[in-house]
Each structure stands twice: as structure tokens, then as C-alpha cells.
Amino acid sequence: MSDIDMNGGTEQLSARQKEILRLVAAHFERKEIARLLNISPHTVKAHIDAARKRLGVATDRQAARLLAEKEGAMILASPVVAAPDVAGNPHGLAERLKRLNMLQVLGAIVLLAIGLALAFLLLMAGGITTMQAIQSLTGQTR
């Protein structure tokens, strides 16, 4: 690593650059970061590029890891990490569902309906099989 990396390159980052790198470390894509922070993807790219240049690293992930290490944070290895939004609330399933477009919502509803129908059919088949087994064990026939 260069001298700037070892001697506090992360202190030279703006608050916004640090915020974006934390989201990169939490495995958010640039478009997601733009939506979360209510800025354009181009602006996100500009912040990341400037941060990478200041830190002397080649990739977004390297910059994010350097910041995490400098802040004493654990290097984030799992994509299942809640990142704070501008108000400080963690993003859960509800936040991600709010960002779906109408076609995605309809697709999710159709998939859910198909899943429920299959579960119902399996339960019915199991019930019929169970009833037949009980009838044959008790000697009841039709």
C-alpha cells in the first residue's frame, strides 16, 4: 500500500465518500446506493472514483475494505447486512419491497399464488392418501 493508505488516507475522504464506501462494503450496488441516498448513479460513481484516487486503490471493494479496517470495523464478508439509510433506520424487506415496480409486484403475487396452489395440492394429496391408508387398515371400503 502507498504512504497515503498507511498515513490516514481515509481521513481525507469526505463524509459522503465514507457513507458511500460503507454501503459498498455492505454489498450494495451503485444504483441501490443512488436510490438510498437520493442521488444519481453518476454522482455515486464520482464519489467512489474520487475516494479510490485519494486512497490509491484500484477497486471499489478495496476502498471500502480500507475504510472498514481504518475505522476498526470488521471486514464485511456477508451480503446480508443492514445498512443505515439517511434517517438511520436499517433497511429490511419492507424497504426493498417499496422499491419494486408494478411488474415486479405482479410477478411476486403470481409466484406466491402458484406456491400456495402447489402447497394446497400437496396437502390434499397427502390427506387423500392418509384417508385411503386408514380405510384399508380399518377394513372400510366403498
Automatic annotation (TrEMBL):
CDD domains: LuxR_C_like. GO terms for biological process: regulation of DNA-templated transcription. The keyword Transcription regulation applies. PROSITE patterns: HTH_LUXR_2. The keyword Protein transport does not apply. The chain crosses the membrane at residues 105-128. InterPro entries: Sig_transdc_resp-reg_C-effctor, Tscrpt_reg_LuxR_C, WH-like_DNA-bd_sf. Pfam families: GerE (PF00196). One of its GO terms (molecular function) is DNA binding. This is Bacterial regulatory protein, luxR family protein. Residues 6-71 form the HTH luxR-type domain. Keywords: DNA-binding, Membrane, Transcription, Transcription regulation, Transmembrane, Transmembrane helix.
